[in-house]
Amino acid sequence: MIQIYEPIPGENFELCHPERGDDFETLKVQINGVPRCLTWRPISVQLVHDDEGRERVVSDSPWLDAHALIFRKSAITKLAGLLEEHGELLPLSCSEAELFVFNPTRVLDALDEQSSAMLRFSDGGIMYISRYVFRPEVVAGNHIFKIPNRRASPVFWDESAVRAWASAGLRGLEFKKVWSG
Prior knowledge:
- Helices cover 19% and strands 31% of the residues.
- By secondary structure, it is of the alpha+beta class.
């Protein structure tokens, strides 16, 4: 049985925000599966250690969003083979840590739109997916991937990738199962 997960932020772990507000949009547009290593210009980001008076804990993956996962060198060292097989690590500019954004280059037409539950925009584009159904023959053997159906697809992980994260002792991400098949 194949199980697919979506990363979510661990509670009380640090966040990562672009220094310029419009770079949130830059990341949505550019972290889309198209290889960028030859043209990438590092985006300036800052770590958020305090959020509304709550101190946040250091994370191996400071949270930005499910479509653009940020990794410290500690995570990359432990998951290098897995990450490099399924995407590219693009450097970010940060004054206090060596950070990279992960651009998964496996974009799979794996979503069974007929069986999934979703809301659509008036132009037919997908706004929100409340229940994912994937085509097993497409996702099988792909440990980390995105789908082309959404403008800012989450980075999906299969069970073996989630186990690799956990067995490496990394902190900051949790994983919500979104499909079994």
